[in-house]
UniProtKB/TrEMBL annotation:
<dbReference type="InterPro" id="IPR028154">
    <property type="entry name" value="AMP-dep_Lig_C"/>
</dbReference>
<dbReference type="InterPro" id="IPR051414">
    <property type="entry name" value="Adenylate-forming_Reductase"/>
</dbReference>
<dbReference type="InterPro" id="IPR045851">
    <property type="entry name" value="AMP-bd_C_sf"/>
</dbReference>
<dbReference type="Pfam" id="PF14535">
    <property type="entry name" value="AMP-binding_C_2"/>
</dbReference>
<dbReference type="InterPro" id="IPR000873">
    <property type="entry name" value="AMP-dep_synth/lig_dom"/>
</dbReference>
<keyword id="KW-0436">Ligase</keyword>
<feature type="domain" description="AMP-dependent ligase C-terminal">
    <location>
        <begin position="336"/>
        <end position="432"/>
    </location>
</feature>
<protein>
    <recommendedName>
        <fullName>Phenylacetate-coenzyme A ligase</fullName>
        <ecNumber>6.2.1.30</ecNumber>
    </recommendedName>
</protein>
<feature type="domain" description="AMP-dependent synthetase/ligase">
    <location>
        <begin position="91"/>
        <end position="286"/>
    </location>
</feature>
<keyword id="KW-0547">Nucleotide-binding</keyword>
<dbReference type="InterPro" id="IPR011880">
    <property type="entry name" value="PA_CoA_ligase"/>
</dbReference>
<comment type="pathway">
    <text>Aromatic compound metabolism; phenylacetate degradation.</text>
</comment>
<dbReference type="GO" id="GO:0010124">
    <property type="term" value="P:phenylacetate catabolic process"/>
</dbReference>
<dbReference type="GO" id="GO:0047475">
    <property type="term" value="F:phenylacetate-CoA ligase activity"/>
</dbReference>
<dbReference type="InterPro" id="IPR042099">
    <property type="entry name" value="ANL_N_sf"/>
</dbReference>
<comment type="subunit">
    <text>Monomer.</text>
</comment>
<comment type="function">
    <text>Catalyzes the activation of phenylacetic acid (PA) to phenylacetyl-CoA (PA-CoA).</text>
</comment>
Amino acid sequence: MSLYWDAYHETMSREQLAEIQLKRLKSLVERVYTYVPFYRQAFQEKGITLGDIRSLSDLKYLPFTTKKDLRDTYPFGLFAVPRSEIVRMHASSGTTGKPIVVGYTKKDLETWSDLVARCITMVGGTKEDVVQNSYGYGLFTGGLGIHYGTERLGATIVPISGGNTARQIMLMQDFGTTILTCTPSYALYLADEIHAAGIDLKNLRLKAGIFGAEPWSNNMRDQLEEKLGIRAHDIYGLSEVLGPGVAIECAYKNGLHICEDHFIPEIIDPVTEEPLPYGERGELVFTTLTKEGFPVIRYRTRDISALYPEKCACGRTHLRMERITGRTDDMLIIRGVNVFPTQIESVLLEFGETEPHYLLVVDRKASMDDLEIHVELSSKMFSDKIAGLEVLERKLRSRILSVLGISAKIKLVEPKSLPRSEGKAKRVIDKREL
């Protein structure tokens, strides 16, 4: 079994990689300047000419692209090819305004499939595997992205999409599913339902899970690996850049390998917008190098991460990104403290006495922010004496104060009383009128 899907590009020296990136960056800049009026105007406003990009370090002079820019140019304003060359379009839900529309040429889809095949190979997948794809299909990029990448690898795809949990479990048993793909919160729900049905994990063939589309912690990974008896891998992608396939964890789970031959990542200070050095946490920014239909220059993802340049033990040389710890735009500021839901999740799971299901309720009372954390008890703890629950509540409250520096009310709730999600879990209710 090969460790690599594309060994040449995945293990090339940093010098070779830089040559490829610079050549592709120059080509990208020329294409968007020529064919995308938005970028031509943005370059001109910054006084940038095509000849100004002489090295990769010149990337920092190029303008950022934001979600607002994508909305303002709805629907096809950032396409770099005629609409007739677009063979597939995806879009965001548009729940907060106009949706984000992204288009792919035939070559884009081939590239995308190739990168997802690279990702599945990185977690140990081969053409012998059965991949149960429980990401949603449709305008969301998750389902179709994984689907065509699996077929490109030559593995068997089970395109079940999300929901219908009983059927998911039945097919998992009957089809011999070896790799599960979905959001981590839905994987956890599936795991609970498998255990509730009394199914012995020895009767399943699951060996790995590829989970993404929402931030999740290492403690949740531990829960998933224990409850499903698998290796759980974090995958990263976003519609504006590609969809799943931008980066994924290898067997060493030491950060997500970014497919740098196709994307240039940066970490910037979200306030000053200045690039930050390796190892420092900030906002993740991507420039697509090979996309034809919908390329983006320095797209601000709002995701919080850090980059690490050291060669991985797996032999790959591409930069690794830290798993996403939150977003700049869903980061909670409570009494002046920056709080990410994943930080709280990690604390809650430290004790092993609660389920990884929780809800943060933020309110403002008498000009003071108030944080209440609803935490679901495990069945064992729920049957414990009141004194035991009081001890647990105090431990959680103390640990939250120690880690985050803020006090919070802990509300222990019955097992299975918090809403489950077949997609992205809703973790926060913010009642404040800010």
